[in-house]
Amino acid sequence: MVELKDTHCKCYDNLIEIRIEKLLRVRSPKRRYKMMTTNIAESMNSCLLAIQKLPIASIAEFIRDLLQRWFHDRRTNAHEMSTYLTRYADDHIKQRVLQSQRCEVNPIDCNRFKVGDKWTDTIVDLEQRSCLCRQWDLDELSCIHVMAVARLKGMPMTVLCSDFYTTGWLKHAYSMIVNPVPKPETWNIPR
Q1: Taking the alpha carbons of 62, 65, 71, 77 in that order, is the dihedral positive or negative?
Q2: Do 115 and 148 contact (CB within 8 A), yes or no?
Q3: Fewer CB near the terminus (10 Å): N or C of the chain?
Q4: pTM of the entire structure?
Q5: Are 25 and 135 within 8 A, CB to CB?
Q6: In 81-166, which ranges are continuous DSSP H helix?
Q7: How many CA atoms lie within 13 Å of 6's alpha carbon, on the beta-carbon side?
Q8: Rounded Cα gap, residues 141 and 79, in angstroms
Q9: What pLDDT, in 10s, does the model give residues 83-132?
């Protein structure tokens, strides 16, 4: 940013007006680009490599067909899940439950807790949905400190995870149907 300010002051001023939080992942209050956004782009790019020299209509049909299959497979997978959280979130919780049992929790008030693990002490704020380790803040999936607080308060671990990790949300995300394009002679084109 210093280099940008020195060479293009007006551009620098415009970026500062936008706010740094919107520009830099490191300053983002949440993880905007992680597994889902990166993986889908990489998956799509690898699928399109083989067909990049085809006519645009063929590429469009290939993409439509690919998305139709992906949505069907993911919709089927989501409907087979019987847990509240997705398999990914359930695995995350299970991996960290043992670690969270080693944490010592001391209430500060009804929403804030000092939580110590063998490395460091941190503060969990249930009202702000924040932990100083920042894992819960960024991923919106319970860290070991939040799990320790949930256990102390008798709360289910699943309550403190974002709705984005629920099976219901996953089912909703893939609820749209990708239909085949009908033959051109059946199209109803308005004047």
Answers
A1: negative
A2: yes
A3: C
A4: 0.67
A5: no
A6: 87-101, 135-139, 144-153
A7: 3
A8: 22
A9: 999 999 999 999 888 889 999 999 999 999 999 987 889 999 999 999 99
Q: What are the structure tokens assigned to 96, written together?
A: 């960290």
Which residue reads 């959280």 in tokens? 85
User: How far is Cα of residue 84 from the mean position of the Cα atoms in its chain?
Assistant: 17
Domain residue ranges in the chain:
1-30, 87-163
How many whole angstroms separate alpha carbon 85 and alpha carbon 114?
Answer: 27
Angle between helices 144-153 and 87-101 (to 10 degrees): 80
The one-character DSSP state at 176 is: S
Per-residue burial over 32-64, b if 16 or more Cβ lie within 10 Å, else e, is: eeeeeeeeeeeeeeeeeeeeeeeeeeeeeeeee
pLDDT band per the 50, 70, 90 thresholds, residue 44: confident
Specify burial of residue 105 (Cβ count, 10 A radius: 0-12, 13-18, 19+): middle
What is the enclosing helix (H) or strand (E) of 104?
strand 104-107
What letter would DSSP give residue 129? T
Stretch (H or E) spanning 125: strand 121-125
Q: Token pair of 188, please?
A: 């109803």
Asked if residues 130 and 143 have their Cβ atoms less than 8 Å apart, the reply is: no
The DSSP code sequence of 50-101 is: GGTTS-HHHHHHHHHHHHHHHHHHHHHHHHH--SSB-HHHHHHHHHHHHHHH
